[in-house]
Amino acid sequence: QVQLVESGGGLVQAGGSLRLSCVASGRTFSSYAAGWFRQAPGKERKFVAAISWRGDSTYYADSVKGRFTISRDNAKNTMYLQMNSLKPEDTAVYHCAAKGRPDGSSYYYYVSEYDHWGQGTQVTVSS
After folding, report:
1. Backbone angles phi, psi at 111, to 5 degrees
2. Is the pLDDT score of 119 beyond 90?
3. Among residues 7, 21, 20, which one has the least CA distance to residue 84?
4. Which residues of 48-66 are buried (b: 16+ CB within 10 A; e: fewer)?
C-alpha cells in the first residue's frame, strides 16, 4: 500500500501560479504510475495530468495543456504539478493518485484505473 499526501494549494489571482506536491509513503513510489485529478463542488472528479512510473511519458487534459506541467522525483517519492496562468475555472480540490503494476511507460487517465488516492488540496483562483 502507498499513502499519498498533497500540499501546495491555496488562493491565487487569475494569471498566477501554484506548485502542488504529492508525497508518497509506505511503498516505493517509483513502482507506480501517477496522476492528478480535480473535483469542483457538485461536479465529478476529472483528469488533469498523468505521468509514467519512470517519468518519461506525460499526458494532459486539453483544458490545462500548455499551462500545467506534471513531473516526479522518485528519489524523493514526490510528484509535482506546476500550474501557471491559472484561471477561475481551475478552482477545485486537486487529488493525486497512484496506480500499481503499470505497463512500461504507460500513463493512465481514468479514475477507475487508479488504486490509491490522496485526500486533496484546495486550489482557489479568484478573478
Report:
1. -55, -40
2. yes
3. 20
4. bbbbbbebeeebbbeebee
Rounded Cα distance, 34 and 91, in Å: 21
Contact 16, 71 (CB under 8 A): no
**With pLDDT > 90 as the criterion, what percentage of the chain qualifies?**
89
Task: Enter the C-alpha cell of residue 60.
Answer: 494532459
Q: What is the pLDDT of residues 58-115, one digit of tens each?
A: 999 999 999 999 999 999 999 999 999 999 999 999 999 999 988 878 899 999 999 9
Beta carbons of 70 and 58 less than 8 angstroms apart = yes
Asked if 77 and 24 touch (Cβ cutoff 8 Å), the reply is yes
